[in-house]
Amino acid sequence: MMEGIKNIVFDFGGVIVNLDRQRCIKALNSIGAQNIACYVDECRQEDLFHDLEIGHINRKEFCEAVRNKSAGCKATDEDICWAWGQLLTDIPAYKTVWLRKLKEHYRLFLLSNTNEIHWQLFGHHIEDCFEKSFLSYKMHLLKPDAEIFQRVLADASIKAEETLFVDDSKVNCDSAERLGFGSMWAKDGGEWEILVR
Fold first, then answer.
1. Helix, coil or strand: residue 191
2. Contact assessment for residue 75 and residue 28, using Cβ atoms and an 8 Å cutoff
3. pTM reported for the whole predicted model
4. From its phi and psi, is residue 189 left (phi > 0), alpha (psi between -120 and 50) or beta?
């Protein structure tokens, strides 16, 4: 048990679900969306990706934007969603075991910059591990904005000083720390195993 910690807030992508950018790039290229593949290659989170993750556009509007930005791309909505979904690979079974063990001692929450396409693919696999999931596309906010962390604190009725935040982005961890959270930078996704011991 960690001294003074009652709650743990986890990120999703890169911490719980594994990511494979190259697989996603290959899939986008295969459907003629090369102009979108370069966004993934350069880790750019702007335009249509930002709008999707903050909930300003829906799945259908995202697919239309992909076709508009990729001249000659005739891919169907289903093909585009499939290709974008290739970014997420799997949730290792041992991570759900870790979460269930932690749930015996802490209140667990999820806070993710995600979108409806990715969440529909993998969210149902782990949602029961958490008391509540806070998703950017539903909240219309993104990490590292302080407001998204403040909303989690208010909605979950928890205190920052009693909460550990686990994320694979140092920028997000730093933002949480400025608000009084403890943080763990899980840059390789598996470092939080130490919490289970």
1. helix
2. no
3. 0.95
4. left
